[in-house]
Amino acid sequence: MTRKPTDLASRLRRTKQAAYRKAVPHLVIIARAGTGKTTTNIEGIKYLKDLPVSVTPSPQQQAIWDSIAKSRGIAHTICCVAFNEPIAIELQRRVPPGCNAMTMHSMGFKAVARHFDLSGDNVVNQYRVQDIIAELLGRSIHEIRRRDSDLLKATEKLVSLCKMNLILSSTNSLSTFNEQLSRLAAHYDVDLNGQTDRIFDLVPRVLERCKDVTKDGCVDFADRIWLPIALDLNIFCYDLLLVDEAQDLNRCQQALALKAGRRLILCGDDRQAIYGWTGADSDSIPRMMKQLSLTDQGCEYLHLTVTRRCGKAIVREAQKIVPDFEAHESCCEGLVLLRQFEGSEEKTSYHRDVKDGDMILCRCNAPLVSECFKFLRQGRKANIQGRDVGQGLISTIRKLMKGPGPAIGSGPQSPPVSHAYSSFEIVDLLGRLSNWLHLETRKEHAKRNPSESHLIALQDKHDCIECF
């Protein structure tokens, strides 16, 4: 059969575009705080599509636009990936017609829903992992929540962390997988409550069962990005995929981005990678830069360093940590005060300078707990943000109260944590707390790669409980 000339021309055009596409490098933009990265990307897409732009670019912005424009004529499908749903909705309103904007989870879910033919209001079940645990144990979820809540919480947390960090039992030996679980539990402060063997036995079974969506017809939040990678599902691949807040991607999201874009433009600030505690990869940007550099396309790097958000004095302070951070000439001067206080007494402490609505920050929790109590004793309103802090402390206190040795407050009805204990019981609890810290610290130091962050967290938890 003779091919029509139009068919041949179409084939030649596609071949030429494919070769051209391979020659266009990926782009990583290091964008500091307040440097206009979203505006730069949106206007860059307009520039790519030969549409009127609404800002006069700085030299740094023009360099980024020129790089984006290398996809001119070959980027027929474009998607902007936002950090969360509200930002994605706002982004969809601002991007040029014909461009998509969505979260990474929305993008992954499209592939999952298409593959498993999911539809309706009940396809996303936030309790899916708990239901699977109950199914595997052959018990009622209500009974497990009542009698085995520690097992349930720890298993559910580790399953989620395995998904975010792409730790799969099927690709590791049992010993290697268990070692990875131990590191996850230590790094994210997952309390195993003396049930390590039971939890480590459950986690791989739950992960395997999570892959079988046809059995329960639903997924949870983490499944939406994990299943396309774990099951190697077909996912729509955009000619140009722009990813915002790239420093906050977890390992699973990184893999999904590589799968969903022929050319990637990653934008983020490697000096603002502060979401590691949620499962994000603190090395996301350098890791992706390395991976993209090894592709046939290669990778180029550009910067946005001039902020319009921060005062000049604030920028000078930040430059001690981030030297390339610059203030735009239009920025106000701003104010940074450094005050040193001699002691903790009211007359010599910083308390007299604190006003209602102020926020006090510290990299550890114990000093915040101590200071919060001081303000309360002064009759001033104060609270600590973060429910997980209190829950973690209560869990540790309950574990210490149970043993070893006679349980503190034991009797016909063991009192709650809020019970008023005698001075003897408190001394006993503090002794157990000290022993617990010593034992946990020794266990961490005995590991092949002790985690400094976990050691700091252990000491901080000890100090927090002492504050009470």
What does this protein structure show overall?
This protein is an alpha/beta fold. It folds into 3 domains: 18-115 and 231-304, Rossmann fold; 128-218; 350-467, no CATH class. Helix content is 50%, strand content 9%. It is built from 19 helices and 8 strands. The strands form 2 sheets. It has a 6-stranded parallel sheet, sandwiched between helices. It has a two-stranded parallel sheet with strand order 7-8. Helix 4 (85-94) links the parallel strand 2 (78-82) and strand 3. Helix 5 (104-116) crosses helix 12 (223-230), helix 7 (141-147) packs across helix 8 (149-164) and helix 18 (423-445) runs antiparallel to helix 19. The model has no long low-confidence stretch (mean pLDDT 88).
Précis, in short:
Pfam families: UvrD-helicase. This protein is of the alpha/beta class and 468 residues long.
Based on the model shown, name its key terms.
two-stranded parallel sheet; six-stranded parallel sheet; globular; 8 strands; 3 domains; Rossmann fold
What is the topological layout?
Layout: H1 5-23, E1 26-31, H2 37-48, H3 59-68, E2 78-82, H4 85-94, E3 99-103, H5 104-116, H6 128-137, H7 141-147, H8 149-164, H9 174-187, H10 196-210, H11 213-216, H12 223-230, E4 238-243, H13 251-260, E5 261-268, H14 284-293, E6 299-304, E7 306-307, H15 312-318, E8 326-327, H16 366-377, H17 387-402, H18 423-445, H19 452-467
Parallel strand pairs: 1-5, 1-6, 2-3, 2-4, 4-5, 7-8
Helix pairs in contact: 2-3, 5-12, 6-10, 7-8, 8-10, 12-13, 16-19, 18-19
